[in-house]
Amino acid sequence: MTTVLAEPTRRQAIPIPTGCAHNCSGSCALIAHVRDGRIVQITTDERPDRPNDPQLRACLRGRAYRRRVYHPDRLLHPLRRTGPRGEGRFERITWDEALDTVAGELRRVIDTYGNAAVYLQHGSGGLAQLMGMEPAGRLLNCLGGHLEGYGSYSAACIEATVPITLGTRVCAHPPTDWHNARLILLWGHNPAETTFGTNTPYHLRRVREAGTRIVVIDPRHTPTAVALADEWIPIRPGTDVALISALAYVLITEGLNDQAFLDRCCLGFDEAHLPPGIPAGEAYRAYVLGEADAVPKTPAWAEPITRIPAERIARLARELAAAKPMALMPGYAPQRRAYGEQFVRACIALAALTGNIGVPGGSSGAPGTPPQFTPMIGLGAGPNLVPYRIPTFRWTDALADSAALTPRDGLRGGDRLPSDVKLVYNVASNVLVNQHADCRRTADLLRDPAHVEFIAVQDQFLTPSARFADVVLPVVTWLEMSTVYQLEPQGNAVVAMNQAIAPLGECRSDYAICAALADRLGVGEAYRAGRTEADWLREAVRSVQAQDPACPDYETLREQGIYTVRWDPPIVPFEDFRADPAAHPLDTPSGKIELFSTVLWDWGDPARVPAVPRYIPEPDDGPRYPLQLLGPHTFRRTHSTLEEVDWLEEAFPHHVALNPADAAARGIADGDRVRVFNDRGAIVLRCRVTPLVMPGVVVVPQGAWWAPDADGVDTRGCVNVLTSQRATPWAGGSTQHSAWVEVEREAWSA
Fold first, then answer.
1. Which of 48, 343, 419, 743 is the most exposed place for a label (fewest CB within 10 A)?
2. Could you name the CATH architecture of 79-154+380-478+506-528?
3. Computed from CA positions of residues 416, 417, 420, 425, in that sequence, does the dihedral angle turn out positive or negative?
4. Given the DSSP bridges, would you call strands 266-267 and 79-81 parallel, antiparallel or unpaired?
5. 138 neighbors 441 (Cβ within 8 angstroms)
6. Contact assessment for residue 667 and residue 660, using Cβ atoms and an 8 Å cutoff
7. How far apart are CA 566 and CA 570, in angstroms?
8. What does the alpha-carbon distance between residue 26 and residue 23 come to, in Å, rounded to a whole number?
């Protein structure tokens, strides 16, 4: 791949290497073909395709990107709100007016309420260097800091519980080790649709073709199950831990568990390995066998809960024990539920029981990054002098009543916040309304100036979130700037994203906007640190070079477009620990894998936050709403980004999916327009009747833009009209997959 930075001519299109930096966890290569200053085509990686270094091929989302760049609804000028918040009425203003207003409001709120009254909204719409949240975070920290969230919408329970169980999130096996597995269990994991690292589906296909068996456990017959699996096991949503408990029962009672590994490397599997002072009956084995609650977690016990036949549960347990090694690869979706912490820890327990931690072809049972991951460090936010942190998913509580947020609700840094949030800075994010749960409640909070006095938004479109802004600042896409990009979970590629075209309209980069605000607020020198944008990009690449000397410098990377890290031979996480736990202890309180967590025991809420992973039935919404709602990711969008791309809408129409049995009971036919509703609201969209969804389950892919009519009924199909703002009890994470609804045919459906 060669970069040609000369001016294009009318006779040819100039190929310019760039990439795709939206949050699908991929690091894909794009080539923008530019003629007369306009992108006329987008293609993808043209390097030689090698088995262990495959091309970073972009999916349809990346290849359709020019339809987004040139969309007629692109924001091209700064805007100021003229009507009530949320109505979307704005007037065009100059950059000076916009920047003066935002800078003045930042200064006013900080001087009046303190820095903790400023909240930087979580966002993942721009993840390359100099894009997205990081420039804004650096600006706010130059001003003394801001209220910060922790724990992402994607993986809050993983981020909280994996470190206390394994001591690290560097716990994933690289794809080059997957071929050593005899069986791969994809649990709620759908990389064929969500990507989850460029070429994850490619590597899975290769290992399956070489003889590795792949089993998918999921309520949906996903594209991954269709294309990559030998078997699909449908499971009732929210009952994953019941299934794991029953698998553990078979392993223990039939002597199939790896007792030697559990004795040497784990805390709390049985009574003999509990921490001092813990009473009998609290070990994981005691829970599984029912010694504490008189309820053995047999396959027969799990069958009515999970809707998986007891015989199939027992057979799966024996398959997992016999497949040496076995790789359990859980996805993120099952931990975005009411008790998501339990799923994360139960998967680690299953990997430990089968003895697959620390062996080639095995797994830790937890999502994470592989040891070869070389994180790129660039701009950096700098020190945040505000000590308070809140769970990202609980930000609306900080608007509504900050005094109600306590350390038991996840507040860090003090017993109470000193102020409600009065200013929200929203960058590359549609979380303000669309991607957060219960859109109606959030919109009501944002409309009320008593809750939040000023909202600034930097974005490329007037999203449902941007409609609530007081000032909107238009931002370039990555095709209109130069940057570099690298993203976990695989993280084995650094992609140079060269500017392909001049910025459209008056758009500026996130970094340039924040630098201009820093100048107005008297911290411009501290913000820039004497560097240009190109200097920051050079520093980012140098941070990779410091760990991987083979990585080229920034200028060379711009020319070649891509640098990939080779994972041969693969490094196996926890291999040293398994060989000698005393010499290589984990960074946990005991130095071992904590199946019994001393941290969670000390929390003192065993009914909701038990010290060993347990199945806890989820609260439902009663007989009025008998169907469980899922809001999975889709080919159509990356979260809510790309919603406006017509090509993707045509290829992947947005609809609600319903099992034929549920549809027949409601008189619904394929293609009918239906109403999906609960106490939080209602959405209207077309129905797809399909056996790919198990009975009792409704699927509305997340990311559609909220578009309420005069009666408040959403006409586009935004799943978060129906989801709950209830957080998980310990991590404070999203429970957006724990929702119940009813579906009815619209009387005027045609």
1. 48
2. 3-Layer(aba) Sandwich (3.40)
3. negative
4. unpaired
5. no
6. no
7. 9
8. 7
Phi and psi, residue 692, nearest 5°: -75, -10
Helix (H, G, I), strand (E, B) or coil at 12: strand
Which residues lie across from 641 on neighbouring strands? Answer: 638
Neighbours of 744 (CB within 10 A): 15
The ranges of the chain annotated as CATH 3.40.50.740 are: 79-154+380-478+506-528
| Cα–Cα distance measured from residue 618 to residue 334, given in angstroms and rounded to the nearest whole number | 12
Return d(Cα 638, Cα 625) in angstroms, integer: 29
> Which structure tokens are listed for 63?
């290849």
Question: What pLDDT score was predicted for residue 567?
Answer: 72
Query: Which of the 8 DSSP states describes residue 743?
Result: E
Task: Report which of 57, 52, 60, 71 is spatially closest to residue 19, judged by C-alpha positions.
Answer: 57
Q: Which helix (H) or strand (E) holds 150?
A: strand 148-150
Give the burial class of 277: count Cβ atoms within 10 A of its Cβ; 0-12 exposed, 13-18 middle, 19 or more buried: exposed
Q: Mind giving me the DSSP string for 352-378? A: HHTT-TTSTT---SS----TT------
Cis geometry, peptide bond prior to residue 325 (ω within 30 degrees of 0): yes
Copy the structure tokens of residue 22. Answer: 């939206």
Q: Would you list the DSSP string of 24-86?
A: SS--EEEEEEEETTEEEEEEE--S--BTTB------HHHHTTHHHHT-TT---S-EEE-SSTT
Q: In sequence order, what are the beta bridge partners of 233?
A: 217
* Alpha carbon distances (Å) from 335 to 232, 237, 346, 588, 727: 20, 11, 11, 21, 11
Residue 394 to residue 23: CA distance in whole angstroms:
21
Please give the Cα distance from 173 to 367 (Å, whole number).
9
Q: How far apart are CA 214 and CA 187, in angstroms?
A: 11
Give, for 630, the enclosing helix (H) or strand (E): strand 627-630
What residues does 456 pair with on adjacent strands? Answer: 425, 471
Give the Cα-Cα-Cα angle 90, 636, 625 (nearest 5 degrees).
85
Cα 643 to the chain's mean position, in Å? 18
426 forms bridges with which residues in the sheet? 457
| CATH 2.30.30.140 matches 627-745 | no
| Model pLDDT, residue 156 | 97
Per-block mean pLDDT, blocks of 10 residues, the chain (750 long): 44 90 83 96 91 86 94 98 95 98 98 98 89 95 97 96 97 94 98 88 95 98 97 98 98 98 98 96 98 96 98 98 98 97 98 98 95 80 94 94 92 95 96 96 94 97 98 97 82 89 98 98 97 95 90 93 84 97 98 98 97 95 88 92 94 97 98 97 98 97 97 97 97 97 82
Residue 32 half-sphere exposure, CB side, CA atoms within 13 Å?
Answer: 31
Domain topology for 158-366+572-603: Dimethylsulfoxide Reductase; domain 2 (3.40.228)
Instruction: Give the angle 258-262-266 at the CA atoms, nearest 5°.
Output: 155
The Cα–Cα gap between 309 and 729 comes to 31
Question: With contact defined as beta carbons under 8 Å apart, do 742 and 698 qualify?
Answer: no
For every residue of 130-141, DSSP letters joined together read TSTHHHHHHHHH
Four-residue CA torsion sign, 286, 288, 293, 296: negative
Query: Could you give the residue range(s) of every CATH 2.40.40.20 domain in the chain?
Result: 627-745
CA 128/CA 143 separation, integer angstroms: 24
Instruction: Please compute, for residue 529, the number of CA atoms within 13 A of its CA located in the half-sphere on the CB side.
Output: 15
